[in-house]
Design goal:
By secondary structure, this protein is of the alpha/beta class. The protein has one domain: Alkaline Phosphatase, subunit A. 32% of the residues lie in helices and 12% in strands. Helix 3 crosses helix 12 and helix 10 runs parallel beside helix 12.
């Protein structure tokens, strides 16, 4: 069995980055453009592909996102969530409200089990039922397959668990990097390491529209940060200083000229690359203004939609920018709903669904729907039980994959029983670890491997990206989950 190797990438990445970032200075927002310095071996892509991670910060409530709909399962769900029959109540949503978002898979789930999406997610339900979206059931961080009995064991050598379960910051990091808070590299960044050689403009291999993230940091690839309005400028070079063009010109000369001192010269080379990247992005995006179709079809007052619109514009400009493989990261917060779950999640689910729908439609208009795969992730799921007006921190959760290459209109993974009992013999009680916290039936490594394989990662390359993937190679825990064409 393979166990986590937290220093496999991070030690050499830290040493490299410690030297690199010393050259950049903390004041440069584009220090992350050092990815352009890297030379990486991997596949040489002749087509275009992009992965887009949509992270739901705070831990999304799985049970009110992908909701049990068949009568038997719904009655169990409503009873546990404090509802009154099929009329909802407590933190259960009324069954009748779910009919417009009922999911109709091509192959029905065993035992007559049915699911619907949150009533605010009509757009995403439509993508599912039209065959371009799918649901991965009960996925979460795992070191190796584990049963509830093994989870309860004190023998962590024989039955290893992910570190620091149920902690927000740590589980966000574990999802993105297989390590707790403090990790310096993530699996999106390691995919980017392999993709660098496919891109003329290597700076834009890994792009975040939501600030810094470990997910996009590799050994050589680092995330380039843009805002929803475009590339971030170095103000002292782009604008007058103290209302003086002369001061700006002087700073510009000092920052960009060749220097005899090796450290000063390296600093200026990094700055020059940052200025060049900003200029290239701004020029390329000018051909795809946000006010024109399909970019003007995104919903307003929705920051996630604003982020995904920028991703769509960068994808539209891929030829001008010289990119064949890209990994993007966007996020939406507010999911830590210990209270006000019904009202709070309704707003969040609407924003998520409408943003994902608009983004998919934009990729279809751009002719790259089958080249762009969007997927969700989150700190963790939450408890099935109610704490009165919300739910508490959990583990496994349900997630979405959207794109023309997704084998859609389908559920993947194991549908967990609706239960919060503590029986040691009832099979229904083996898929949670208390209060309906799902014990994942699918690991993040399997989820990531399926996406990475479609992207172009091959053979043993995956072992350097996902430290636990060797533990998932059985019929019940296949390395590839099959949701990508």
């Amino acid at each position: 069995m393979h166990f986590i190797q937290p220093d496999k990438h991070t030690r050499r990445a830290f040493l490299r980055r410690a030297g690199q970032l010393a050259f950049t200075g903390a004041a440069l927002p584009t220090a992350l453009n050092l990815a352009a310095m890297a030379d990486a071996a991997a596949f040489n892509a002749t087509d275009y592909k992009a992965l887009v991670c949509v992270f739901l910060n705070g831990g999304n409530d799985y049970a009110n996102t992908v909701i049990n709909y068949d009568n038997t399962s719904y009655d169990q769900y409503a009873a546990i969530r404090g509802g009154s029959g099929r009329n909802g109540g407590g933190i259960a949503i009324a069954q009748a409200a779910l009919t417009p978002t009922l999911l109709n898979p091509t192959v029905a789930l065993p035992g007559g089990k049915q699911y619907a999406l949150h009533p605010s997610m009509t757009g995403l339900a439509g993508l599912f039922n039209s065959g371009v979206a799918a649901v991965q059931l009960n996925v979460g961080p795992l070191v190796a397959p584990v049963t509830r009995q093994q989870y309860n064991s004190s023998n962590r050598v024989a039955y290893p668990l992910p570190p620091k379960l149920f902690s927000h910051n740590d589980q966000q990091s574990v999802w993105q990097s297989s390590q707790p808070e403090g990790a310096t590299t993530g699996w999106g960044g390691h995919i980017g390491d392999l993709a660098l050689s496919s891109n003329t403009n290597r700076v834009l291999t890994c792009v975040s529209v939501t600030g810094n993230t470990v997910f996009l940091s590799g050994d050589q690839a680092l995330s380039y940060q843009v805002s929803t309005g475009g590339a971030v400028k170095i103000n002292a070079i782009a604008n007058n200083v103290y209302n003086s063009a002369a001061v700006r010109a002087a700073i510009n000369s000092l920052a960009l000229q060749t220097r005899s001192h090796v450290l000063e010269n390296e600093y200026n080379l990094v700055t020059a690359r940052a200025v060049g990247a900003e200029s290239a992005i701004s020029s390329a995006l000018a051909a795809f203004p946000a006010t024109t179709a399909p970019f003007n079809t995104f919903p307003t007052n929705n920051n996630l939609a604003d982020q995904l619109r920028m991703v769509a514009r960068l994808i539209a400009a891929r030829t001008q920018l010289g990119n064949a493989r890209q990994v993007f990261f966007v996020s939406i917060g507010g999911f830590d709903l210990h209270d006000n779950l019904i009202n709070g999640q309704a707003t969040l689910m609407d924003r998520l669904s409408s943003a994902l729908t608009a983004f998919y439609n934009a990729t279809a208009t751009l002719g790259v729907a089958d080249k762009v795969t969007t997927f969700t992730a989150s700190d963790f799921g939450r408890t099935l039980t109610s704490n009165g007006d919300g739910s508490d921190h959990g583990w496994g959760s349900h997630h979405f994959m959207v794109g023309g290459a997704v084998r859609g209109k389908a559920f993947y993974g194991k549908a967990p029983p609706v239960s919060v009992g503590n029986s040691t013999t009832d099979a229904n009680d083996q898929w949670h670890v208390g209060q309906g916290r799902l014990l994942p039936g699918t690991s993040v490594d399997q989820y990531a491997n399926t996406l990475a394989t479609w992207f172009g990662v091959q053979g043993t390359e995956i072992n350097g990206i996902l430290p636990h993937i060797g533990n998932f190679n059985s019929a019940d825990y296949p390395a590839n989950l099959g949701f990508m064409a």
